[in-house]
Amino acid sequence: MTNHRAIPYTCNIEDLLKRLAAKKEQLDKLRPLPKELEQSLDSWLGVEFTYSSNAIEGNILTRIETAEVLERGVAAVIKGKQLKDQLEALNHAKALEFIKTQSRILKSHQYITEEKIKAIHKIILAGINDEWAGKYRETEVFIRGFNVDLPQPKKVPYMMAEFEQWLQGIEEHAVRVAADAHYKFVAIHPFVDGNGRTARLLMNLILLIHGYPMAIIHNEERTQYLEILNAAQTKGNLEPFYTMVATAVERMLDAYINAVQGKPVLSNLIPTSPKTNKLLRIGELAKETGETIHAIRHWVEKGLVEVAEHTGVGYQLFDRSMIERVREIRRLQKEERLSIAEIKRRLA
Length: 348
What we know:
CATH class of the largest domain: Mainly Alpha
Structural class: mainly alpha
Number of helices: 15
Strand content: under 5%
């Protein structure tokens, strides 16, 4: 039988959880938030969560393409991208709406059952793999890049029953319960596919039930996230994973509080790594995107590409986010034949 006892964590994590509880209390005092503000922020988060959770699993839609698919459905023809990628985006958005609804119905995480988890997974794989959507696997599975042996198929139903019992009995800080649920679920890996997305949705269902905002593991954190999960499973060290989840929750608490107080919101929502934080010269941006320097300069002049800063001798430097922007500009020109003015409106 699987041991589901609480996993110890350090005083630093305890201090962080106390800080989260204090910030949640601060946010609760600001509720209800202005309707338009909450809807706008929730809409942005829905796209970001769907984009990042799918991208972590190999989906190649960009943020902009994900937003377009969620707005227009399968009518949004994204050339060069598989229909499966678009279905994954639509399914994830539907699963997100499902957990939001469940968070308003369920009184506590103790009411989350195996059937609720299967329902999330069924939405995730609908139209992609209907045979196994919402059904436990009957074959061995492996996690790419992970050096761990996952439970044999015959053990999965028993381990998931234990997992439900653990959820019904655990009474800890909501963020810790959410992180533990994610970790334990991934360790079981009960489905043939979609385990990571289901785990992150389950984690956020627990957070929403307890009044916390969603915790988004961004695509920019993918390598760190997978390494931390691998270390947790191979070495039993969950402290970095607790910290990562708690930090993601804190980012969102700060975002909601800042939004109400009229402070900048999005600038700190997507974390940067040393690689993503490195500013590019125009030649480097051209090399990364396969464009000419002349084309990029033209788009800068037209206000389509943003210059992050200038060096002391006048060189333009660009944030790495402009790589995706440049690629999208070229796609809109080639595939949709939009004018500069039309592209500018689309990007806005």
